[in-house]
Please model this.
Amino acid sequence: MSKIRDMIVGIDTLVPLKNGKRVPAINFDNGATTPPFKAVMKEIESKLQHYGSVGRGKGQKSTHSTAVYQKGRDVVKSFLGADDPRYTTFYANSTTDGMNKLA
Model:
């Protein structure tokens, strides 16, 4: 189990209690605030120098970021077996946001 804990960012971060004692945080809300894996953070950091606005510019960084974003949508469709052109993929901030977009 400790090997898994070593893979997660901030899992041993201490938080203060009312009595001043500092203890490791317990995350009861993984649906909204799941901590990222260190490997994910490392990958994000390696890509930040090439980041640009998605779908909003014609510069190299924006076109690169848009292509990566679109490729991600294609990977999701492929994973779900929805390669047919009549299917699409969109990202949502939450289940509620996704349901609102579908409606």
Q: What stands out?
A: Residues 53-103 form one domain. The chain is about 45% helix and 5% strand.
